[in-house]
Amino acid sequence: EYKAQHGNTLVPRKYDTNPQLGLWVQTQRREYFKNKMLSNCVLRLESIGFVWCVQRLIVDANWDAMFQLLLEYKDQHGNTLVPNKYVKNPKLGRWVHQQRNLHSKEQLSSHRVLRLESIGFVCFNCS
User: Fold this and answer.
1) Considering just the CA atoms, what is the radius of gyration of the chain in Å?
2) Is 6 exposed, middle or buried (0-12, 13-18, 19+ CB in 10 A)?
3) Same domain, yes or no, for 41 and 59?
4) Both 39 and 60 in a single domain?
5) What pLDDT is stored for residue 119 in this prediction?
6) Is 92 in contact with 82 (CB distance < 8 Å)?
7) pLDDT at residue 123 in the model
8) Is 78 in the same domain as 37?
9) Residue 94 belongs to what H/E stretch?
10) Which pLDDT value is given to residue 79?
């Protein structure tokens, strides 16, 4: 019912409309991470798009938003060479610098590396 109305399974912990549902969802996530949930329950929840780690979802959404800003920068400037101290958007400059650092330390996921490489991202001192 919640998914049909909201298009996702991200029920807030304190869901005023149905507080019991919010608590139930929180309990499911906790039990999942403690490996105390039966596999058929996991599969049933996953079949409706249940999100186990909301924090990961937020991190990925933030990364995607910054990637979109990098695409816009590339459209305007013809490259992805955002200065570390980019005056128009300091956050983008820091993010690009961070991606280069993570890449050089091999701490950037292969999926993200591929996305960056697909737009001509330049990584200095990267192997």
Assistant:
1) 19
2) exposed
3) no
4) no
5) 96
6) yes
7) 79
8) no
9) helix 90-104
10) 96
Mean pLDDT computed over 8-24: 94
Our measurement of the distance from residue 39's CA atom to the centroid of its chain's CA atoms, rounded to an integer in Å, reads 25
**Residue 66: enclosing H or E segment and its boundaries?**
helix 54-77
Same-domain check for residues 62 and 23? no
Token pair in block for residue 114: 């591929």
Q: Which amino acid is at 89?
A: N
Residues 66 and 106 in one domain: yes
The residue segments making up the domain with residue 93 are 55-118
Residues 55-70 have pLDDT tens digits of: 888 899 999 999 999 9
Average pLDDT taken over every residue of the chain: 93
Q: Are residues 41 and 61 in the same domain?
A: no
Q: Is 1 strand, coil or helix?
A: coil
Q: Are residues 72 and 41 in the same domain?
A: no
On whether residue 123 sits in a domain, the answer given is: no
pLDDT at 122: 83
Same domain as 42, residue 21 = yes
Residue with tokens 């570390």: 84
**pLDDT beyond 80 at 6:** yes
Give the chain's end-to-end CA distance (angstroms, integer). Answer: 49
Residue 107 CA: distances (Å) to CA of 98, 113, 116: 11, 10, 14
